[in-house]
Amino acid sequence: MKWAIVSFLLGLDLWAMQSAAPPDFDDLSKRASAALASNPAEAAILYRQAVALRPEWTEGWFYLGASLFQTNQYAEAQKALQKASTLAPTRGTVWGLLGLSEAETGDSRRALADIRKGEALGLADDPKFVSAVRNRAAQICIHEADFSAAVQQLRPLAKAGDKSPTTIQALGISVLSIPSDPAHLPPAKLAFIEAAGQAAWAFYAQNDAEAGALLQQLTSRYPSEPGVHYLYGLYLLASDSVAARREFGKELHLSPTNAAPRLQIAILDIQAGKPQEASQLAQDALRVDSQNALAHLVMGRALLDEKSFAQAVPEFQAAAKLSPENAEAHLYLEQAYRHLGKSEEARREREEFDRRKAASDPTVFNQAR
Questions:
Q1: For residues 320 and 146, is the Cβ–Cβ distance under 8 A?
Q2: HEC profile for 7-40?
Q3: Are 69 and 6 in contact (CB under 8 A)?
Q4: Other CB atoms closer than 10 Å to residue 143's CB: what's the count?
Q5: Which end of the chain is more exposed for a tag (fewer CB within 10 A), N or C?
């Protein structure tokens, strides 16, 4: 995976080479570029010498970081990429690779923040690199038991056609909310995760016929496994809300402390014009998981429909804080502020919504997890 990351970076023209430079710098930069593909350790030495001559050479700091990453010198790669991010703060790919380096040094929280920043700015148009970044972010979210955020990282990969084993397994773990390390799971459980991952991939890739067939097989084969009926319910939402609600009910019976199916039923209540019922379900979900972004979002939606605009605002703010990649909270904040006559706040939230929606795959409200 690391070689795939760096191999694509070799041909990536992030910055034009500066021509008016001393001969020593020209020689070093050319030799470093030539060495990066075949000898990243030598490339790192040469890039380090080149940036010493020209400390403001952004490209050099970036490729120094890339070569150090390739040779497993993650702490040093992190330092070089931090310098590159200072010189080029709007380059999403720099932030993405910085996040990967930070993840390797164990700084997961900062890694996830920088990866999200890179995604918001826009990663390089290279499927392998994007897959590496999003899968690493998903792994961090899974480790933190934030399965909703993991799914949000992986959904764009499915839509882009990334069907790698890493993506399939991560999807399976995320949609089933399995906190265990796959290396410690028995083969039967791994087969279950694989089947769920394949079904989830087809669903998020919007291959409806394939998703329907795989989900029917999944529910027939694993009817008592937590997560299965929830996923099938998500699939049914677009075509049969009654059947979807029934599947969410089955999931809630199997996992009474799981907030997700309760929230999906609440969303159906909102759509049916029953905000009070939805509000009660959202409260129940928050008692189970006070840090659940979707629970705050649903609560805010119910309050919005009840015209309790001032009370809805902190719920949407909490959802935005807990799930920074979710654009929808900002859309609803805009609506609440407009009802409260706060036009400037509403304008800022609309701009934030548009920015986040353009930067990443938007969260669909009734499929958020």
A1: no
A2: HHHHCCCCCCCCCCCCHHHHHHHHHHHHHHHHCH
A3: yes
A4: 12
A5: N
Tell me the pLDDT tens digit for each residue of 174-190.
999 887 777 788 888 99
DSSP secondary structure, 117-183, as one string: HHHHH---S-HHHHHHHHHHHHHHHHHTT-HHHHHHHHHHHHHTT---HHHHHHHHHHHHT--S-GG
Cα–Cα distance between 84 and 61 in angstroms, integer?
5
What does the CA dihedral 328, 234, 202, 192 come to, rounded to 10 degrees?
120
Q: Which amino acid is at 142?
A: I
Q: How far apart are CA 281 and CA 45, in angstroms?
A: 59
CA-wise closest residue to 330 among 365, 303, 302: 365
Residue 191 in contact with residue 171, Cβ under 8 Å? no
- What span, in angstroms and rounded, lies between the C-alpha atoms of 186 and 174? 18
pLDDT band at 6 (very low <50, low <70, confident <90, very high): low
Provide CB contacts within 8 A for 205, sequence distance 6+.
158, 159, 161, 211
- pLDDT(363) > 60: no
At residue 162's C-alpha, the angle toward residues 160 and 166, to 5°, is: 145
- 316, 297 contact by CB (below 8 A): yes
Q: What one-character-per-residue DSSP string does 322-362 give?
A: H-TT-SHHHHHHHHHHHHTT-HHHHHHHHHHHHHHHHHSPP
Compute the distance between CA of residue 28 and CA of residue 326 in angstroms, rounded to an integer: 44
Q: Token match 């979707």: residue? A: 294
- Give the model confidence (pLDDT) of 73-124 as tens digits: 999 999 999 999 999 999 999 999 999 999 999 999 999 999 999 998 999 9
Q: What is the pLDDT of residues 191-221, one digit of tens each?
A: 999 999 999 999 999 999 999 999 999 999 9
pTM: predicted TM-score of the whole model, two decimal places: 0.80
